[in-house]
Give the backbone structure.
Amino acid sequence: MGEKSVDKASLSMLDKAAQEGIETAWDRYEKQQPQCGFGLLGLCCRHCNMGPCRIDPFGEEPQEGICGATADTIAARHLLRMIAAGAAAHSDHGRDIVTTLYETAEGEAQGYQIKDEGKLRALAAEFGIPEEGRSKEDVARDLAREAMEEFGMVKGTLNFLNRVPEKRRQLWEKLGIAPRGIDREIVEAMHRTHMGVDNDYVNLTLHGVRTGLSDGWGGSMFATEFSDVLFGTPQPVRGKSNLGVLKEDQVNIVVHGHEPVLSEMIVQAAKDEELIAAAREKGAQGINVCGMCCTGNEILMRHGVPVAGNFLQQELAVITGVVDAMVVDVQCIMPALTQVAKCYHTKLISTSPKARFPEMEHVPFSERTALDTARQIVKMAVDNYPRRNKDRIQVPDEEMEYMAGFSVEAILKALGGSLNPLLDAIKAGQIKGIAAVVGCNNPKVTQDSGHLTITRELIKNDVLVVQTGCAAIACAKAGLLLPEAADQAGPGLSAVCKALGIPPVLHMGSCVDISRILVTAAAIANALGVDISDLPAAGAAPEWMSEKAVSIGSYVVGSGVFTVLGTVPQVLGAKKFTELLTKGAQDVLGAAFAVETDPLKAAELIIEHIAAKRKGLGLEA
Ligand code: SF4
Ligand code: MSK
């Protein structure tokens, strides 16, 4: 195993963990070595109880499962199930936001308001819902109902497909992969991957793309757009990042997971004068709410709330000894937290009926009593403050400022209200192209090194980088989300950033907010009158680990964007299927995957790809 992290704060907490005998994900990763070779190659099937079956990767026997499934069928089925799980996670998050908007409109959600009425009315117009002369609550109720229908839609395709460039939409229609209802694609994915149903790896892959598209242009897009309506559309905002945001003299509450419905209320409750007074009574200077992972991204985008770290720092935050409560909702929450927290005073609180953890205290969260529940949780943290073990406290100094909040609307505002300045800069070659660098941490990669290396190389070569998720937090910690980072960019990009006062790396939000990147790409393609696949644009997931990332990859490639993966997907044992993902998809979708574990080489692939696309558009490379 190479270096564990490039982040000094993480390394100092890993030293502390080692001294105190605390296991982290990195230790458990080492204990898993060597990882199962069949699993790594995608050659193991457990889809029925005749199995488990495995395929010999060296061409010896067996080459088929008991039912006759080949390596390609087995790997394609497995990948499709990963896509279905990822799409389900994002889309169920989207559904929760839609439900919260509905309950807010009905006056049944405590503490929520419709913050962006303009966006609400624009969305209503997009969905054909009359809005003139009607109250925002009436419009929101109808819009939320319409959105609920789209999850289990009986007829037609998703409404947001109207945002997709015509050429791309026609291609999806031709291939039979325009997504219908969100739930329908996910259910069909599960059906097709049942033993003895879809055994053709090409057909399975096409449905994988369709399922992914129902996430990107459906569930995730609902999550983003409706969160903006409820909590406000992000605008540039500054805040701080890394474990140094945890304060020794304050009650620290870390909100971790993905959905903003609870964290928004915690942010609100932590401003309550009574609770602040209670914190002071216990000897603290105040209440400090910090984020972790994408729940962190949601509140930093809208409020500049400090973010304590990305995926691999969740255990490390507890190890500082100053986290009085870690409140979790759904997704990317390591069950190991309960064991780590036992060694410190940290109170772990689960809140979602969908995500319970053995030995973790559960405070059920409901929109109807949201603010009361948030106050209860903040109070629990305050009461826990005096239980800290002062001898075990060590908070890293590392704390870095960031500028985030780059929604599509914020980018347009920075550009003076139209995409033209960006298009002109691309045409003139000041900006060569745009790359989305997104995704998780994974102990298979030195933490943050993939994100940072690829991002630095791209901006150096005048490629504007847009980010979401844990990749964005990695760049926040490294100072790349500051306008001053323009000095690290090539001359063209640097000049554009300085003129606009923006960083060369734009933080666009949480994982579901990759939908903002789709909307931006579609708007640029529409403005140029081309397909998304014609754009000098690419995607990268240098440290991805989650099934959501597989769904994202499939909708990004399905939308026509070349994507480089930095950790190896579990498919390489299936030769024809791998060939389809990395080459054949190009002929069908106009985009394909590449797998490149060296981030510098990955950046080179992207730069070459952008140069080729520029040439295709008649622009100078
Ligand atoms: Fe084996 Fe086929 Fe059952 Fe998979 S579906 S476990 S390959 S028999
Ligand atoms: S939180 S999905 S580890 S980016 Fe969205 Fe980070 Fe990946 Fe979770």
Remarks:
- The chain is about 50% helix and 10% strand.
- The domain at 243-392 is CATH 3.40.50.2030 (Rossmann fold).
- The chain has four domains: 8-54, 71-231, 243-392, 406-616.
- The CA atoms of residues 164 and 522 lie 6 Å apart.
